[in-house]
Design a protein that fits this description.
312 residues, mainly alpha, Serine Threonine Protein Phosphatase 5, Tetratricopeptide repeat, elongated
Length: 312
């Protein structure tokens, strides 16, 4: 399994290393390990390198040999552990560590071992932050998404979508939107939800309409708290236009009434409050009573009232 390039390096190292010993001197464990590696006996190479480490040969070169041998065996955790030790002593081994961990990631990807893929790439990124291999983006995104690690999944979704361009798979957009939704990023989630909605047939839009309506209303409430009623109103209108979620239509009309009232559009606000009872699924919820109270306040209580504090 050892690549031709690594074999050449080992042979050259072996020649140099041998020259350092007198004829009668016993060969070292590192030297025997190099010989075993050169002939492809990985188990023997690991045994010799490990013996050298136990005997006190803890230099970066030996540690890197142990790490690379574990890479040849496909053992991600052990390879990462020894590469960390090697890099701590000599950061010139960083490139080798990153390269080997990506090799392990690709091998895991080829076996559909997404846990191994994620583990190898996490180790690679511990040596060099921000590494994202384009063709690994989507499987990593989906691995973290299924594990509920939505924030970790997002940069991989972004990379995957960027790489797909016009050929973006609709389901990938929906997954990315859902990940943003889970980490309270409704504004970004809505962009992906809407893009996904435009790409699918009308009869398939039930779920995404629910997601858009719910997310739009949640974002609108946040905007109202920040006194951004004009923008909030646009998102509330989107929830009402979609008619989803049905259970939140009364809430949407109530929020619309409050935003319109804040903007001084009193008659429109009153109309919105009247709609609460019409769409409320219970017909007698506390929200209906609050909407009626707000309607009456706007209708019968004027700006001259000491208790009147709304824009209307």
């Amino acid at each position: 399994m050892i690549g031709a390039f690594f074999r050449v390096i080992i042979v050259l190292s072996l020649l140099i290393f041998t020259a350092c010993f007198s004829n009668g001197e016993e060969e070292s464990s590192v030297l025997r390990g190099d010989e075993a590696a050169a002939r492809g006996d990985i188990d023997a190479a690991l045994a010799e390198y490990s013996l050298a480490v136990r005997q006190g040969s803890g230099d970066a070169s030996t540690l890197a040999r142990v790490a690379h041998t574990y890479v040849e065996m496909g053992r991600i955790d052990e390879a990462g552990e020894f590469y960390r030790k090697a890099v701590e002593q000599d950061d010139s081994y960083t490139d080798q560590a990153v390269s080997d961990m990506i090799i392990l990631a690709r091998a895991s990807q080829g076996r559909d071992d997404f846990f191994g893929l994620a583990s190898a790439m996490e180790t690679a990124m511990s040596f060099r932050a921000g590494i994202i291999i384009q063709d690994m983006g989507l499987p990593l995104a989906r691995h973290y998404f299924r594990a509920g690690e939505y924030a970790t999944a997002l940069p991989y979704y972004q990379s995957a979508i960027s790489g797909m361009g016009e050929d973006t798979i609709p389901e990938v957009l929906f997954e990315a939107a859902s990940a943003y939704d889970e980490v309270d990023g409704c504004r970004r989630a809505l962009l992906y939800y809407e893009q996904y909605r435009r790409m699918i047939h009308r009869w398939r839009r039930g779920e995404v309409d629910w997601k858009i309506g719910s997310c739009s209303l949640r974002l609108a409430k946040e905007l109202r708290m920040a006194n951004k009623d004009e923008e909030a109103l646009l998102h509330i209108e989107r929830t009402i236009a979609l008619g989803e979620p049905r259970s939140l239509q009364a809430v949407a009309y109530f929020e619309m009434g409050e935003s319109l009232s804040d903007l001084g559009r009193c008659e429109d606000a009153m109309d919105a409050f009247l709609q609460v009872q019409r769409v409320d699924q219970t017909g007698s919820s506390p929200l209906v009573e609050r909407a009626q109270w707000r309607y009456d306040e706007l209708r019968f209580v004027g700006p001259s009232s000491a208790n009147f504090s709304m824009a209307c």
